[in-house]
Design a protein that fits this description.
mainly alpha, globular
Amino acid sequence: MRVLTTLRNGDYRLTRRMAAWDSAWARRLLPPVEEAAEHTKLWWVAAAVMATGGGWRGRKAATAGIAGMAVAELLSNAVAKKLVERRRPPKEWIPHDDVEDRPDSSSFPSGHTAAAVAFTAAVASTWPWAGAACAVPTVLVALERVHSGAHYPSDVAAGVAIGLAAGALVHATPRLLILRLG
């Protein structure tokens, strides 16, 4: 029980510190990242760019990324958020205006992070260079979710775990089907 209390206290302290982080680049960069990640727009655009400019490999990577994102959203938003009811970080902890735009759903896990990580992991398993390019906005999405006060760091960590699992599942599915059906 003491371990959980220690983890919870650390989660709260880190949330307050990250939300209060006031740097010029964070103020300029993170709000557009939040807007781009809303409703997975960023990942749909990335998939379209890969599919149109990357040839066969780009289309395969885009398809894998979209599949990974769909699985992650299903697991995080339709399953995990229904199982774990967690309130968003208190508004008093967030010293900037982004706090007013937070969703009403459960804080746990971060669906934005799960979708971003799943997209990136699935793309990386098909086209490593494109996956590396997607990793940069993925990290920014994860940082933004805590900075804006939408999530605790543990919500983001759970989103990362769900995203990695979804990406691995998408990568393994063709082989599993061949083994099962072959």
